[in-house]
Specification:
binds flavin-adenine dinucleotide; single chain; 30 strands; 5-stranded parallel β-sheet
Length: about 550
């Protein structure tokens, strides 16, 4: 059987390699537009910053090495330009000569990925304007940085890629500003979580301007200024990280079903509406694993798994891809960010009775050197008790928290399934009750009413108006607020009326909860805890 694969990075090479392992007799040919295959797109920002020193490390396999390892044939510099489904052929043009050749297939795999959105704006053709997708982008950017001429950079787009590049430019001593037309950075995170990260980035010298649209670039020959809806910004280097679009334009008249964003629609077998054509990776829309709704999650992780499923089915199997949770993790200066499942907003939009809780929890035994916090926002469905999503921030192993949550959501776990999980503990790694289990307990306390709180989003929206703010930290930390040490309070405590509206604020939320718990027992009826305390929330301390 002749299997033609178009595309040779994550999804294409994974499909081809797995298929040859499943069926040695399959004649597998990869057609790929670029000269490189199988490169480490995810590693490119770290090459820019010098964390990855050697450009050869960016190429996981050369075409020759890949062919020798797998038995699949690789034809580079061949751009697929037309598909004839009736004749079962793909026409590809040689990128250098333009010469066209026709390739026959019994089964076709489309793994053409996506390309950066390149806006039609004045000045985008100037020197020192970059996108970040292929090794040559990162190599050219680092060569420029090594000349020492880049003092200021503007990164347009505050998703994972834009922020990773921003971090690495800053690590090279460049003053970096990030603009994004959205009202928040980090799409896929709830706004208050993204807002916290934005403040942390500012602390480390990377200033983000949200609600700010790129309007053009100015310069003579080389970029000098970025024009935005807010103001002009000086720049020696510009990165366009405005998102990506699937490389499916050449399939426009093919009759293959596409979603509105141009991605190919596939079933669980990774098959398009043509039974002989499969697709995988950044060019497809799959399903959200929780809601079943169509989902585009262009990640290297899912591209590989989708390719594997397509290969197994091409080899006669009956595999079904279960869909994505939108799991992702990203390293930023001093803070890692991870997410999986639904945000609170997405959970509500999907019709869940979504409850969220935000807390600051120890990431390892507090006495162990290097111990810090995780800031976690967890979302669950009140009705079924199922975990729906989690976002985690912190300097430590955010990926571990994210992956435990991803596993739990994938297994349809309820909070009670998770409350006594036997997770690994030793002081250098974790806490005796693991931070994930700690979060489950906090969520259960909130659902049972034991914890009566305002979320940071509710607080920012003014829910605490009319409440008396009280500092319940371990020692006074909010100078203009009255201070209360719950360990010194007993039944006779009468500083406040029993029905007075009191908001307890401490560093993380825990001591405020302990204060509430004690005062409730003494008959106080109107107390609230501020989730995430003054670590996460910005507290206006002027009376
Ligand atoms: C800077 C950066 C950082 C990233 N970091 C992460 C990360 O940390 N974690 C993560 O999970 N994901 C990350 N990603 C995303 C990840 O790289 C992509 O999801 C993944 O590369 C998608 O693989 P793919 O094979 O579907 O598509 P692509 O990587 O886009 O590959 C498509 C292939 O198709 C070829 N092609 C396109 N059109 C044609 C045509 N007409 N004819 C022939 N060949 C064609 C291209 O040459 C290429 O070989 C990152 C991406 C970037 C750019």
């Amino acid at each position: 059987m002749k299997i033609l694969v178009i595309g040779g990075v994550a999804a294409g090479t994974k499909t081809a390699a797995k298929l040859k392992r499943e069926d040695r007799n399959a004649e597998v040919t990869i057609l790929v537009k670029d000269n490189d295959i199988s490169y480490a797109g995810c590693g490119l920002p770290y090459y820019v910053g010098g964390v990855i020193e050697n450009k050869a490390s960016l190429i996981v396999n050369t075409p020759a090495k890949f062919s020798a390892l797998t038995g699949a044939k690789v034809l580079t510099g061949k751009e697929a330009v037309a598909l004839d489904r009736a004749a079962k052929t793909v026409t590809a043009a040689d990128v250098e000569t333009g010469e066209k050749n026709v390739y026959e297939y019994d089964k076709l795999v489309i793994a053409v990925g996506a390309s950066p959105i390149f806006p039609k704006l004045p000045g985008t053709e100037l020197k020192n304007v970059f996108v970040m997708r292929r090794p040559e982008d990162a190599i050219a950017m680092r060569e420029l940085l090594d000349t020492g001429t880049v003092k200021r950079a503007v990164v347009c787009g505050a998703g994972f890629i834009g922020l990773e590049v921003a971090e690495n430019l800053a690590a090279k001593g460049v003053k970096v500003s990030v603009i994004d037309m959205a009202e928040q950075i980090l799409p896929g995170f709830d706004p208050e979580v993204a807002g916290y990260v934005e403040r942390k980035l500012a602390d480390s010298g990377i200033v983000c301007f949200t609600g700010t649209k790129l309007e053009g670039i100015e310069g003579t020959d080389t970029v000098e200024k970025v024009l935005t809806s807010r103001r002009a910004m000086k720049a020696d280097l510009v990165v366009l990280a405005l998102g990506i679009k699937p490389n499916t334009a050449f399939l426009a008249d093919s009759g293959l079903e596409t979603a509105k964003n141009g991605t190919l629609v596939v079933d669980g077998a990774m098959r398009t509406n043509d039974p002989d054509i499969y697709a995988a990776g950044d060019c497809v829309t799959v399903r959200n694993r929780i809601t079943g709704a169509p989902a585009w999650s262009p990640m290297g992780s899912s591209a590989n798994m989708e390719g594997r499923v397509a290969a197994k089915n091409l080899a006669g199997g009956e595999e079904s891809y279960v869909g994505v949770l939108g799991t992702g993790v990203c390293k930023l200066p001093g803070i890692n960010v991870g997410r999986t499942g639904l945000t609170e907003a997405a959970a509500k939009a999907a019709g869940y009775d979504a409850v969220s809780v935000t807390a600051v929890v120890d990431d390892k035994a507090h006495y162990y050197p290097g111990a810090s916090n995780f800031i976690v926002k967890m979302t669950a469905d009140r009705k079924s008790g199922k975990l729906l999503g989690m976002q985690t921030l912190g300097p430590g192993a955010v990926d571990k928290m994210t992956d435990i949550a991803a596993l739990a959501i994938s297994m349809n776990a309820t909070l009670s399934d998770l409350e006594n999980l036997d997770l690994a503990y030793a002081p250098p790694f974790s806490t005796a009750i693991h931070p994930f289990v700690n979060m489950i307990n906090i969520m259960e306390n909130k659902l049972s009413g034991a914890l009566d709180s305002f979320t940071p989003a509710e607080f920012a929206a003014g829910a605490a108006e009319g409440y008396k703010f009280i500092d319940t930290s371990i020692q006074p930390s909010l100078p203009s607020l009255p201070y209360l040490d719950y360990t010194k309070v007993d039944e006779s405590f009468d500083k406040y009326a029993k029905d007075e509206k009191l908001l307890f604020i401490c560093a993380k939320g825990k001591r405020a909860y302990l204060t509430q718990n004690k005062l409730k027992a003494y008959g106080f009826t109107n107390t609230k805890v501020l989730e995430g305390g003054h670590t996460f929330n910005e507290i206006e301390t002027e009376e």
